[in-house]
Amino acid sequence: MKQPSYRLWLRTFARGTVIRTTLLLAVALGASAAHADSTLDRIHERHKIVVGVILSGPPFGSLDPATQKPLGFNVDLAENLAKRLGVDIEMIPVQPSNRVQFLQQGKVDALIANMEVTEERAQILAYPPTPFEEIGGALITRKDSGIKSWNDLRGKAVCVSQGSNYTKPLAEQYGAQVKAFRGQPESLLALRGNNCVAAVHVAPTLRLLVARNPDWKDYTIPVSSDLIPSPSVIWVRKGETDTQNAFEKVVEDWHRSGWLIDTERKNGMQPSQAVLDLHAKFKAQPA
């Protein structure tokens, strides 16, 4: 029997290789596309979105003493996000020390967790481009500490949460000796125990604390300017563009309708100028 020529075999092998390569490429592209849609698809398939929230105290999140149900600004955002997506909500408490890992490991679909935009965070996670607030850090200290400005922190111990975006400017710009704790409650406890001379956390929480909580009557926020005010956003995993786009539409409508402003005021917050400007911007645009 006549054997096939080397050239014929080579052409056949080449055609097979091209076909196999094309199929593998198609599978890879299909997997990539599926990955981009997987979170949003999963949310609708199970009719539920799982959101990681921080419950470290008012106004962002806490537990109702009577019902033990979560309440606060973060909670309102998560519940309304689910409502506008037409699904149920499950909230999982997270800490600054584990919130990124919870999202990356798929334990939550999104984060609404007092997590402002930084270059480092944007390299590993994604977010809808429109923020729901602009939030900076406030400094809380004893009234008799002698601290009157950010510069007075030089060489002094300052408490923050692990993973805080305030760590870098405190250390590099103001020369503070930063001590990081698991979360805001632990940091504030360390402040009261004189382990640090001041603590820096999201401004709305600390301003509400000294204004309304008698346990903090000996403490003050001596500096009116906030540390690095930054966009506060909903975080999602990298590459999940459909989820990102769906959330963006929700955030834009929060601004357009004025719902966001009303919700902040309901929780004892003062909307920033950035939020007021975004409300005016989207209100002037058709939905």
Notable features of this structure?
D-Maltodextrin-Binding Protein, domain 2; 287 residues; Amino acid ABC transporter substrate-binding protein, PAAT family; disordered N terminus; alpha/beta; 3-stranded parallel β-sheet; 6-stranded mixed β-sheet; globular; 10 helices; 44% helix
**CATH H level, superfamily name of the largest domain:** Periplasmic binding protein-like II
* Number of separate domains: 2
**N-to-C terminal Cα separation, in Å?**
74 Å
Structural class: alpha/beta
Tell me which CATH architecture of the largest domain applies here.
3-Layer(aba) Sandwich
Q: How many DSSP helices?
A: 10
Shape: globular
Report mean pLDDT, rounded to a whole number: 89
Poorly predicted ranges? 1-36
What is the count of β-strands? Answer: 13
The biggest sheet amounts to: 6 strands, mixed
Radius of gyration: 25 Å
Estimate the helix proportion, in percent.
Answer: 40-55%
Q: Tell me, what is the CATH class of the largest domain?
A: Alpha Beta
CATH topology of the largest domain: D-Maltodextrin-Binding Protein, domain 2
Strand content: 15-25%
Order of helices and strands: HEEEHEHEHEEEHEHEHEEEHHH
3D structure, described in words:
With 287 residues, the chain is α/β, with parallel strands linked by helices. The protein has two domains: 38-132 and 233-284, D-Maltodextrin-Binding Protein, domain 2; 135-229, Periplasmic binding protein-like II (D-Maltodextrin-Binding Protein, domain 2), CATH 3.40.190. It is 44% helix and 20% strand. It has ten helices and 13 strands. Strands 7, 8, 9, 10, 11 and 12 form a six-stranded mixed β-sheet that branches. Strands 4-1-5 form a three-stranded parallel β-sheet. Strand 8 (157-161), helix 5 and strand 9 (177-181) form a beta-alpha-beta unit. It starts with 5 loop residues before the first helix and ends with a helix. The model is unreliable at 1-36 (pLDDT under 50). InterPro entries: Solute-binding_3/MltF_N (IPR001638). This is Amino acid ABC transporter substrate-binding protein, PAAT family. Residues 48-268 form the Solute-binding protein family 3/N-terminal domain. It comes from Paraburkholderia phenazinium.
